[in-house]
Amino acid sequence: MKLSELLKKKIPTILGLVFLGGGLVVGLLVLGQGTGGFLPKASPETTPKQLRITNITDSAFTVSFLTDTAVPGYVKYGTDQGQLKTQVSDDRDQLTGAVGQFTTHHITLRNLSPATKYFFTIGTASRTVYTDGGNPYSTTTAPRATGTPDALTVYGSVLTRAATPAQDSIVYVSVDGASPLSSLVKSSAGWAIPLSTARATDLKSFAPITTQSTLNIFVQGKDAAQTSRVTALVKDAQPVAAITLGQSQDLTQGAGTQTTTGATGDTSQFSASQLNSATESTTSGGTNGSSNTIQFLNPSQNGEEVNTTKPEIQGKAPASTTLIIKVESDPVYTGTVQTDAQGNWTYTPPANLTPGEHTVTVSYTDAGGVLRSEKRTFLVLASGSSSLPALTSTPSATPLPRVSTPATGSGIPRAGSTGQTFALLFAGLFFILGGALYWQKSLAYMAADERTMQSVSLDDNNQEPYAER
C-alpha cells in the first residue's frame, strides 16, 4: 500500500492518543522518580544523621555522619559557597582507592589554608546532595599556632558484644577546653587519636592537655543504636581498657563502674538527636527548652492528620536559638524562626499545602558544632475527607451546559485521519527512546563521578590520618 493511500485511511485518533500516553508513562518510568532532575530521589535511608565536625587543625578537618543503609559518602567543598568544585571521599576510600559503602562516614579534608572559612555539602548514594537548609555547611580552619605540645596519644580497641572487632565504628574524644577529635576503628579493632594535634575550643592555640586531663570517649557503632561511653584520665588511656559496644564505663572511679547502654545511652558531649526518629524524647528536653532536644507539639506524632492547608507547626527547642525550618512539599518551603525564652517556636508555611503527605525538618547547629535536627511527617487532608469543618461546594451551584458534538456533513461523527494518528504514535516513541538515552548517559556520568571520588591524595606518609602507627 502506498503512503498516500495509507494516509487517506480513517482510523480512530484515540488510538494515537493511547500510544502517546503510553510513551509518556514508559518514559517517566525509565527516567526514574527524581526530584528536580532525572536522578534518584533522596530517601530517609540515605539521609545523613548526627553530623559532626572534628579534628580541626590549621590545614584539615573531618566531617562525620551516619546513614541508615550502607552507601558511598563524599563531601564537596570550597572557599566560595557558589563554587564547591573540590570533592573528597571517605577516609577508607582514600586508603583503598575504591569507593566503598558504609553506614558510618568519616571524611577528612586536607591541605587546607589556615584561618579560612570553608563551605561544603554532603553527598550520599547516587549523587544526592544535602545542605544546611538550602545553604552549604561551613566551618573555619584554625590559625597557625606556636609552640610544641607534648606528644600524647590515646588508643585502645572496640569490640562487639560477640567479642569481634567493631570495624568501621567511630571513636570520638572530647576533653574540657579542647576541640573534639575522632578516628575510625580498624579491622584489628584498634583505634588511636593523637592529642598533640588538638586545638583549644577557640582554635587559636593547642589545647592544654596533660596526663591528668579527663577524657570523654564516645563510640558510635555501625548501627545508630550501638553506642558506648567511657570516662578516663589520659594516663589511663594508653591504652584504655577494651570497649564493648553497648557498655559504658567510668574508669576515673577506682576499678570503674560499668553500665549497659541502648539506643539512648549517649549522654556525652557528642550526643546527637536522631534526624529521622519516629518519636522524640520528652524526658530529656524538659519544658524550658534548655536542652539540645527539638520537640514537636504540632503535629505531635508522625503521620498525624491535619484538616487545614496552612497548619501552624509548633514545638520546643533550646531557648533563644535560630532554627531552620524546611517543609518538603511541592514547592519546598524554607524559613527561619527564633525560639523564645522558654524555647517555644511556631512556623506556618507561606502558602497553602496540597493535600497529601508532607515532611517538616527543624535543625540548628549547637555550640559544639553538632548539627541537631528532627523530622516529622504529617498528612494534609483533602476537603471533605474529614468530619472536621471544610470547604465544600454549595447546593446552588449550577452545572455548565453540555458542550454539543460538532456536526459533520452526514450528521455522524467521523474518525480522525491516519496522519494525525501516526504523528501521535511517533511522539510516543520519541518520549520512550529519548528517556532511555538520557538515563543511559546519566548512569555513565554517575560512574565517571564515582571514579573521580577516588582521586584524592593521602597524607605525606601515604597512611590513614590518626591511624595506629
Descriptive report:
By secondary structure, this protein is α+β, with helices and mostly antiparallel strands. Among the domains are: 44-144, Immunoglobulins (Immunoglobulin-like), CATH 2.60.40.10; 153-260, Immunoglobulin-like (Sandwich), CATH 2.60.40; 295-380, Immunoglobulins (Immunoglobulin-like). Helix content is 14%, strand content 31%. It contains four helices and 25 strands. It has helices spanning 3-8, 13-31, 91-96, 418-452; strands at residues 49-54, 61-71, 73-78, 86-89, 102-109, 117-124, 128-130, 137-140, 153-159, 170-175, 181-184, 190-194, 214-220, 227-233, 243-244, 247-250, 257-260, 295-298, 304-306, 313-316, 322-328, 333-338, 344-347, 356-365, 371-380. It has a six-stranded mixed sheet with strand order 11-10-13-14-16-17, with no helix packed on it. Strands 3, 4, 6, 7 and 8 form a five-stranded antiparallel sheet that branches. Strand 24 (356-365) and strand 25 form a beta hairpin. Helix 2 (13-31) runs parallel beside helix 4 (418-452). The longest helix is centred in the last third of the chain and has 35 residues, at 418-452. The chain is globular, with a radius of gyration of 29 Å. The model is unreliable at 30-41, 262-290, 384-413 and 447-469 (pLDDT under 50).
Q: Superfamily at the CATH H level of the domain at 153-260?
A: Carboxypeptidase-like, regulatory domain
CATH class value of the domain at 153-260:
Mainly Beta
Helix content: 10-25%
Mean of pLDDT: 75
- The helix-and-strand class reads alpha+beta
Helix count from the secondary structure assignment: 4
Question: Can you summarize the main beta sheet?
Answer: 6 strands, mixed
N-C termini distance: 82 Å
- What would you say the CATH architecture of the domain at 153-260 is? Sandwich
Give me the count of strands.
25
As residue ranges, the low-confidence spans are 30-41, 262-290, 384-413, 447-469
Using only C-alpha atoms, the radius of gyration works out to: 29 Å
Instruction: Give me the strand/helix succession.
Output: HHEEEEHEEEEEEEEEEEEEEEEEEEEEH
Query: What global shape is seen?
Result: globular
Order of strands across the biggest sheet? Answer: 11-10-13-14-16-17
